[in-house]
Specification:
Elements lengths: L2 E3 L2 H9 L5 H5 L2 E3 L2 H8 L7 H7 L1
Parallel strand pairs: 1-2
Length: about 55
């Protein structure tokens, strides 16, 4: 089982090019720390916010 801890940069970058789903294909478990979740979801119109909310 492949697990990673993901910071905001890959979530935002992959979301901006429409490839957020790649994280789920590459890794069995993607852990997002609460601080990263809060950073991205702070502005619901920010790049990656909708994708992360759906994934959680």
């Amino acid at each position: 089982m492949t697990r990673i801890v993901c910071n905001a940069s890959p979530i935002i970058a992959l979301s901006s090019i429409g490839s957020f789903h790649i994280l789920g294909k590459l890794f069995d478990e993607v852990m997002v720390p609460m601080a990263v979740r809060d950073e991205i979801l702070h502005d619901t119109s920010a790049v990656g916010a909708e994708q992360l909310k759906s994934a959680l």
